[in-house]
Amino acid sequence: MAGVAGLLSATSVWAADVRLTGVPEGSDLYDTLRGGSLLVEQTSDELSPSTQEIVSAAQADYGRLLAVLYDQGHFGPVITIQLDGVDAAAIPPVQPPRRIDSAVINIDPGPQFRFGTAKITPVAPDSALPEGFAPGQTARLSVLKDAVSEGVAGWRAQGFAKAKLASQTLTARHPDRTINAELRLAPGPRLRFGPLGVTGNTGVRTQRIIDIAGLPVGETFSPEELRFAANRLRRTGAFSSVALLEADRIGPNDTLPITAQVAEALPRRFGFGAELGSLEGLTLSAFWLHRNLLGGAERLRIEGEVKGIGGNSGGEDYRLGVRFERPATFNEDTDFYALAQIEQLDEVNFFSRQFDTEAGIRRIASEERTYTIGLGLRRAETRDAFGENKYTLLTLPLGATFDYRDDRLNAKNGYYLSAAVTPFVAVSGSDNGMRTYVDARAYRTFGQARPVTLALRGQLGSVYGPELSQAPADYLFYSGGGGTVRGQPYQALGVDLGNGDTVGGRSFLAVSAEARINITDAIGVVGFVDGGYVGAEEFYDGSGEWHSGAGLGLRYNTGIGPIRVDVAVPTSGPETDENFQVYIGIGQSF
User: Fold this and answer.
1) What percent of the chain clears pLDDT 90, i.e. is strictly above it?
2) Fewer CB within 10 A of the end CB, N or C, for the chain?
3) Does residue 369 sit in helix, strand or coil?
4) Inter-axis angle of helices 28-36 and 51-71, to 10 degrees?
5) pLDDT digits (tens, 9 = 90+) for 125-159
6) Residue 436 contacts by C-beta under 8 Å, 6 or more apart in sequence?
7) Which H or E element spans position 40?
């Protein structure tokens, strides 16, 4: 029967709230203590703890609440926790009472201490010590820890990798309620990077890992360089985890050996996607990826896409491409790439079938800035209102991307800028020229409880050189649809030649604005307006035509980005037969 009674007592559930006394209710300290109490957390409405769990939580609260009080500058508190009038520390957790009706946490916090003196020496130049570590400030334990952490970090940034806290003296003066803190750091010797060792790799060659990491062996130690090396390995996609570990012992000649501890990702991966528009129809895409093709973290990606399935935007479009990338080919931040692609576009106003090959380099200047340069060959057959054409171009694609968004899937703040300039030399079928395209986006979020994100986008394009009738038809610009002006039919705006004939323009401008409002953590609504311009001139001069659209959207946030549903109507521009458009996809519209 004793065993049965013990089981029943351990499974009895809580039936009363926890009371916190001794601290003024509603004060910041009161709220902080309740937030730090495990007993308060365990007895919330969402949980039904057993009496054994309640006793364990109460006993754990002595240490937890003491740490909270120390962090608030109270270094002489008295804490009493009683369960039905019995001190929680005296109750054996393995023999809890059958029932607990009340819990009282009584705290006498004592006086709040402030720093009388706050010294840390020696301090490296440009060290960012916390503002709270100063005479007269609340003597928080977390501030002391932060001061040590920042002091050590300051020396490590100067190359003193083994900097540490050598000693600390904390003296409490109770009459004037002050804490005198004197911290002493030991920087140790300035070190240089020693050799990079590698562990955990099986498929990726060790030397390639060393080349990709690009650790500057022999140069002064730098935590930033250590972070850069780890990021270079991660961005290859060949590893599921990367850690660069510093040796415990200093090596010969004041060097610090580093070990790259890696775990390789599965080398092969495939994926697929889908997007639906009421006019554009269904878009299906799929890819197959090998992340370590030749044993040096080389990537081979084969992808295909079919657009316009069941849509009213011309016919169906097809694309099949293959892309090879080799990281750290010329140096640790410069990759080589090569690609080949065949594509067929059966659009409302033109038909194109083309084959592209290209090879080039990608320079990763920083985590936010990337530059590309390549050399390509394009062979195409096109048909539009000017007739049929076959052309062959030698291209020199140049690109730059600046990505300072806080979240690439669902940006709240920051900006994004992508610019592409493609000079081309006509081997046949066209004239020499240049195509440019710029995509700029900015984001700003206001508010805390129900944040509102304002998102702006501008697109600018131009084809310089060939006359409109001689320009490659698939290089020209149209406006309308999900990527430009929602609410307007897909590629509804171009250059009107009369008699119902329309071709793309040599100049293009599009602007979009969105207000994204979070209703809950998972659900949001969006209001948006888009405008687009297409002209026959090489650069925008206003002689072309504008159209616009506006609408509302719904967002449901997921781990892979928000699921997007937008409904839009045309608001200005040439008359169309469409009253509204619906767009469904994953991710924000921009």
Assistant:
1) 73
2) N
3) strand
4) 140
5) 989 999 999 999 999 999 999 999 999 999 999 99
6) 419, 420, 421, 422, 460, 461, 462, 464
7) helix 38-42
* Beta strands per DSSP E along 162-232: 164-173, 178-186, 192-199
Q: What is the pTM of this model?
A: 0.80
End-to-end CA distance of the chain: 68
Q: What is the pLDDT of residue 5?
A: 35
At how many degrees (to 10) do helices 206-213 and 223-235 cross?
120
Rounded-to-integer distance, Cα 288 and Cα 286, Å = 7
577 token code pair? 């037969």
How far apart (Å, rounded) are the C-alpha atoms in residues 532 and 493? 8
- Starting from the edge strand earliest in sequence, which strands make up the sheet with 255-264, in order? 192-199, 255-264, 239-246
* Strands, sheet with 114-121, edge to edge from the N-terminal-most edge strand: 114-121, 178-186, 164-173
CB 467 within 8 Å of CB 431: yes
Query: CA-to-CA distance for 402 and 410, rounded, in angstroms?
Result: 17
3-state secondary structure 392-445: EEEECCEEEEEECCCCCCCCCCEEEEEEEEEEEEEEECCCCEEEEEEEEEEEEE
Which candidate, 350, 585, 346, 576, places its Cα nearest to that of 483?
A: 585
Distance CA 116, CA 179 (A): 5
Q: 174: which 2 tokens?
A: 């109770």
Residues near 408 by beta carbon (within 8 Å), at least 6 away in sequence: none
Which residue has tokens 């600390």?
168
Crossing angle, helix 51-71 and helix 141-157, to 10 degrees?
Answer: 70
Strand partners, 262: 242
Give the 3-state DSSP-derived string for 99-113, with helices as H, strands as E and coil as C: CCCCEEEEEECCCEC
Look up residue 251 and give its DSSP letter: B
Residue 140 has phi, psi (to 5 degrees) of -85, 140
- Please list the residues that pair with 309 across neighbouring strands: 282
